Amino acid sequence: MPIGTISALEEAVHESLARQPITDIHTHLYSPNMGNLLLWGVDELLTYHYLVAEVMRWSDTPPDVFYGWSKQQQADHIWQMLFVNHSPISEAQRGVLTTLQALGLDLTTRDLNAYRAALAGLTAEQHVDRVLALANIAHVVMTNDPFDPLEQAFWQAGHKPDPRFHPVLRIDPLVRGYNQAAPQLRDQGYDVDDDATERSFQGVRRFLRDWIQWMNPLYMAASLPPTFRFPETSANAAILRECVLPICREAGLPFAMMIGSERLINPALRLAGDGLGRADLSSVAYLAREYPHNKFLVTVLSRENQHELIVLARKFSNLMIFGCWWFVNNPVIIEDITRMRVEMLGLSFIPQHSDARILDQVIYKWAHSRAIIGKVLVDKYAALMQAGWRLERAEIERDVADLLSNNFWRFLGRSI
Ligand code: HDL
Ligand code: ZN
User: Fold this and answer.
1) Mutate to test the pocket of ligand 1, among 45, 52, 257, 326 (most ligand atoms within 8 A of CB)
2) In a domain, 388, yes or no
3) DSSP state letter for 156
4) CA dihedral (108, 363, 349, 4) positive or negative
5) What predicted TM-score, i.e. pTM, was given to this entire model?
6) Are 337 and 346 in contact (CB under 8 A)?
7) Which atom number of ligand 1 is nearest to the Cα of residue 326?
8) Ligand 1 neighbourhood includes 326 CB (under 6 angstroms)
9) What is the residue with the minimal CA distance to atom 10 of ligand 1?
10) Which domain holds residue 150?
11) What is the CATH number of the domain that holds 284?
12) What is the mean pLDDT of the chain?
């Protein structure tokens, strides 16, 4: 039975989005059997680095003093400054409310200790089951750092993550600061030079092959600065050319490039101290063109880069663009980006990832994004109806499944 009215269309789109289990293709979450790496709960929610940056705008407490406090003291301060003293209307502030409300907590009391008590006593596994069900997430793609001793201990012992959690081999040091990474590689037993020599190439290739074997990642990934250029003569570029791209091709893995992060523009803020810059996307065009047998997942941090990245996706089918990353993960920009992508790519992209660092955040990050993606889809499907197109609910469900999951797995060449 075709959809005949706008209200029926709105119901079909928003219900399809709500019912479609999500593959969240980039997060900083961890399988519950990876121990303390997985962050969850009220105090972690409140001390998210986005909120740390926002509290510093009101607080008389210097960052180094703040970071010397306990997690609970930090959370109390953020709650008081950003939620009680001022209305919590920023995206990250509102997100905390969306999440607490979904967890069944009474926000009229504003009783932070009651919220803490409500979640106390839960195990990580129990909370993972509850939160993934609330957010309707079927697959969580992690960010796994082979230079982190905790991750080395887990993967090199042959442990496997919860099957809902999928690994990604994150290799920033190799392509963003190879000279500094070389000593760490030698510490792990890889015979490399500080410069990008043939011996270094062989050592890094062995490193990558070993970690692919230990981790079985879905893709390799790196966050890259706005100054990222390829080709160019640096050691970082040589490692990308001689090691990362050939090993990705050999293993059939996409390489995810997250471009535009300027690390620690304010070091005092630590994890909250990163900024952004506009990147030169001619390097992405070069890579997609000159490496047609490699697959690239790409997201960019600058609002000004979004349109040109969409144009590149129109030119290269080995390029899959994804998400509204970090500083563009705000409703006004998410809507802008999603409209441009639909208008220029149809349904052949991955609209969002959560980038969640705290488990509970997936509730708000996906609730907020589902609403915006739905608003754009309703407008676009309504235009099809206006043009006399017969709209079937099953086809909307198919399209939504592509956007929220199948486009990713199809691009990987994997069935799930
Ligand atoms: O490099 C990245 O993966 C970024 O997402 C950073 O982790 C950043 O700190 C972040 O959490 N953004 O949302
Ligand atoms: Zn991230």
Assistant:
1) 326
2) yes
3) H
4) negative
5) 0.98
6) no
7) 13
8) yes
9) 326
10) 6-37+138-168+254-412
11) 3.20.20.140
12) 98
